[in-house]
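Schema walk-through. Below, the input block comes first and the output block second. Nothing else is stored per chain. Lengths vary across the set, and this one has 284 residues.
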Amino acid sequence: MALYTHHLPDWKRKQVESIKEKAGEYALIGLVDVFGIPAAQLQQIRRNLRGVAVIRMARNTLMHHSFDELGGDYEAVRKYINGNTALIYSNENPFRLYKLLEQNKTKMPAKAGQTAPEDIVVPKGPTSFKPGPIVGELQQAGIPAAIQGGKVQIKETKTVVKKGGVINAKQADVLAKLGVKPMDVGLVVQAVFYQGSVFEPETLDIDEEAILAQVGLAAAQAFNLSVNAAIPTAETVGAILTKAEREARSLGVEAPVYAKDVVGAIIGKAYRETAAVQTAVGEY
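--- output ---
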């Protein structure tokens, strides 16, 4: 059911039609949060993604209009429109696009009120600061400092803000002076619509090394199963024949079965057993 049916001014209608048109031109349409990204960095991201993805700014209400008019599966995307949302279009698969967006993030100094994405740790050791007010500033931010050798020294490694903690003004100021840049700034995926499905960032954020390790383990287990169950495949038939030959030879020696290929091994086994008996008898 259309929720945005009232008449739109011409300029808004043009934007809605543009959004709908591009949704038909690209295999993927996504929503990204652009909050806090400096204009210069956003332009750099656009340049880095040229030929791979297109970013378009639009009012949230116009995005709602567009997805409402597109209807069908597109309506599922609307609930992800929130805050400083922009549109991204691409013909890449969503997992590769997510990885590219993550690679285009850069480290920035923290601002007061931001949440620490990870533990923010300041290591023990010397700084470039000369003695002065910076010592008191460091201590007020919870970083133990002292003067040593004419320079300000951080006396012990300190976790200034734990993951999920809010960074206060004093901490933000000191971290910036120390050159600590804990914030990842870039396009943050809110949702991606691709081939009729909506992908959330939790789904797209995969550990490639872990996945490859799991695939490698599964391949090894499948190979072993194929060999041990004697289910021949192009990859395992050689190993199955080698195993069968080895087991047949072992059976021929133990039985014994006087076949041409194993008679030498049978005689060798008999000599070894005879020698063992003679040694045992000689001990008594």
